[in-house]
Amino acid sequence: MITGIHAIVFSAEAEKVRGFFADVLGLSSVDAGRGWLIFALPPAELAVHPADGGSRHQLYLMCDDIHATLAELEGRGVPVAAEVSDQGWGLLAAIRLPDGSELPIYEPRHPSPLPS
Q1: H or E segment to which residue 93 belongs
Q2: What is the mean pLDDT of residues 64-81?
Q3: Which of 107, 91, 92, 103 is nearest to 20 (CA)?
Q4: Which residues face 62 on adjacent strands?
Q5: Domain 14-108 - what CATH class?
Q6: Where do the structural domains in the chain lie, given as residue ranges?
Q7: Are 17 and 9 in contact (CB under 8 A)?
Q8: Which of 1-6's residues contact partners 24+ apart within 8 Å by CB, and which partners?
Q9: Do the bridges between strand 61-62 and strand 102-108 make them parallel or antiparallel, or are there none, so unpaired?
Q10: Which of 48, 51, 106, 109 has its C-alpha lying 20 to 30 A from 57's C-alpha?
Q11: Would you state the pLDDT for residue 3?
């Protein structure tokens, strides 16, 4: 039935953001044609939260140690857009993408449905 998740990041500076995912995060990719890169992602989780009003969707990066991950990313020239905050369910921060947008990243405290 379902074999995976295809997530899309929209950006007015798509080439720069693609370069970030390839060169900074080191994600492998394939060219789906005419330079449209499709990146491999690590295992994923999906949560469904209640919403007031209309539906919306969000994308978060996950890590095992947010402080070490942010230090490594900063060492690669990635600006931290939002410092670590304790949300109860995990430690949340955000990094700045080359187009100026923010991408949340968190260290979960909740159990994972993924095999270890």
Answers
A1: strand 90-96
A2: 97
A3: 103
A4: 106
A5: alpha beta
A6: 14-108
A7: yes
A8: 5/41, 5/44, 5/46
A9: parallel
A10: 109
A11: 79
| Residue 110 vs residue 79, higher pLDDT | 79
According to DSSP, residue 89 is labeled S
Strands ordered across the beta sheet of 61-62? 61-62, 102-108, 90-96, 80-86
How far is residue 38's CA from residue 29's CA, in Å, rounded to a whole number?
5
Find the farthest-apart pair of alpha carbons in the chain and give their distance in angstroms, rounded. Answer: 44
Q: What is the DSSP string of 1-22?
A: -----------TTHHHHHHIII
Please give the Cα distance from 56 to 70 (Å, whole number).
27
Tokens 């955000």 belong to 94
Nearest Cα residue to 38 out of 26, 29, 46: 29
∠ Cα 2 19 90 (to 5°): 60
Find out whether 93 and 85 touch, Cβ atoms under 8 Å. Answer: yes
Render the burial of 22-38: b for 16+ CB within 10 Å, e for the rest.
eeeeebeeeeeeeeebe
**Residues recorded for the chain:** 116
In this predicted structure, the answer to whether residue 114 has a pLDDT above a threshold of 80 is no
